[in-house]
């Protein structure tokens, strides 16, 4: 298992590479060129410059999150072929920089979604909250405005302004796309890129829908064991794999995370793990907490044990953290709580290593 830490770049992150380097056990960053719009080619010189800076701080760059998929690909529009070609060229360029895994998602319009980015917890820290009942009373445009306003001045991954500037028009286009059509469009995308992945030895890791159900009438398909089984078979290649996010999948109570890890781990299809804890408040209502099992509703020991049992040698990162100790950062992506998460997860891993001998 390789412990990593997500980083958005020198000019788009409150956390520095020097700080990440000081977190015990972290070997690399999960990178992202946040200024490149979805569908555009990632230039090799930009990638190499980014990599050089990271390596100068004693860290690796072997995982990218995300190379965003253009909406025209998900919609199945004629223009998708142009964007798929750009994606293939980006995969090639990233391989030249030593990148081994690309995390991405296939969520229409919205990436991960919350109804409150800074809910105050009893201990005074702030965490992100999702309440489906509140969402049903929201207009999508108003939600985007509120989310942007409350992001502490940072862009949010998947909520980049250029992706959402034509929100009403794009949402309207999805009225002709149901789950089956989205599966068709997804297969077309995978058939286009996976041969390039195989050629250049870069594995794709799809992130589950977050939350794990449809929103605003938009189709979502990456949210259950059954659908993940179908996805890995769309193009049956070890390069067509998963980013197993405990929080995104686990917010749907029927998804047994340790069982899902063992199922897909046995296939060798988990290329990246996001480990996060949440607390259920009600039906389709949850908020994020620390990584400590007792703070939420997930047994983090059992989750890490599942990874250990499958002999996981891939990449893991602590997922969304709280804001604590007065920190002002991109919601979910501050330094302190995620660093605490690293220490906790590494402690579990060390115990599992020592007790399994």
Distance between the termini: 17 Å
Q: What is the annotated CATH architecture?
A: Alpha-Beta Barrel
The number of domains is 1
Q: How large is the radius of gyration?
A: 19 Å
As laid out across the biggest beta sheet, the strand order is 1-2-3-4-7-8-9-12
Major beta-sheet overview: 8 strands, parallel, barrel
CATH-derived topology: TIM Barrel
Order of helices and strands: EHEHEHHEEEHHHHHEHEHHEEEHEH
Structure report:
This protein starts with a strand and ends with a helix. The mean pLDDT is 93. Strands 1-2-3-4-7-8-9-12 form an eight-stranded parallel β-barrel, surrounded by five helices. Helix 1 links the parallel strand 1 (2-6) and strand 2. The chain contains 14 helices and twelve strands. 40% of the residues lie in helices and 17% in strands. Helix 4 (80-96) packs parallel to helix 9 (179-200) and helix 13 crosses helix 14 (336-355). It has a single domain (2-355), classed as TIM Barrel, CATH 3.20.20. With 357 residues, the chain is of the alpha/beta class.
């Amino acid at each position: 298992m390789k412990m990593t830490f997500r980083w958005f770049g020198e000019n788009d992150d409150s956390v520095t590479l020097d700080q990440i380097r000081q977190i015990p056990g972290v070997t690399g960053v999960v990178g992202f060129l946040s200024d490149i719009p979805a569908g555009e080619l990632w230039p090799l010189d930009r990638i190499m410059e980014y990599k050089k800076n990271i390596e100068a701080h004693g860290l690796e760059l072997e995982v990218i999150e995300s190379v965003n998929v253009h909406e025209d690909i998900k919609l199945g529009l004629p223009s998708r072929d142009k964007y798929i070609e750009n994606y293939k060229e980006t995969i090639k360029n990233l391989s030249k920089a030593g990148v081994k895994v690309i995390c991405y998602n296939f969520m229409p319009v919205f990436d991960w979604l919350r109804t409150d980015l800074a809910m105050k917890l009893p201990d005074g820290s702030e965490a992100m909250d999702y309440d489906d009942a509140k969402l049903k009373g929201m207009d999508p445009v108003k939600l985007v405005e509120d989310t942007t306003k409350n992001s502490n001045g940072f862009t949010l991954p998947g909520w980049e302004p250029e992706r959402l500037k034509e929100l009403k028009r794009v949402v309207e286009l999805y009225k002709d796309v149901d789950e089956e059509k989205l599966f068709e469009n997804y297969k077309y995308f995978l058939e286009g890129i996976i041969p390039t992945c195989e050629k250049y030895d870069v594995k794709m890791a799809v992130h589950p829908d977050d939350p794990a159900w449809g929103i605003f009438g938009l189709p979502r398909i990456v949210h259950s064991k059954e659908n993940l089984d179908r996805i890995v078979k769309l193009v049956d290649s070890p390069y067509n794999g998963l980013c197993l996010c405990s929080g995104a999948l686990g917010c749907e109570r029927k998804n047994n995370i340790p069982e899902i890890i063992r199922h897909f781990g046995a296939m060798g299809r988990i290329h990246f793990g996001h480990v996060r804890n949440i607390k259920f408040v009600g039906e389709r209502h949850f908020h994020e907490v620390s990584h400590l099992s007792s703070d939420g509703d997930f047994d983090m020991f059992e989750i890490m044990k599942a990874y250990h049992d499958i002999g996981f040698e891939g990449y893991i990162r602590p997922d969304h953290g709280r804001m604590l100790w007065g920190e002002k950062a991109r919601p979910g992506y501050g330094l302190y709580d995620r660093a605490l998460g690293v220490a906790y997860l590494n402690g579990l891993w060390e115990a599992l290593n020592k007790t399994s001998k």
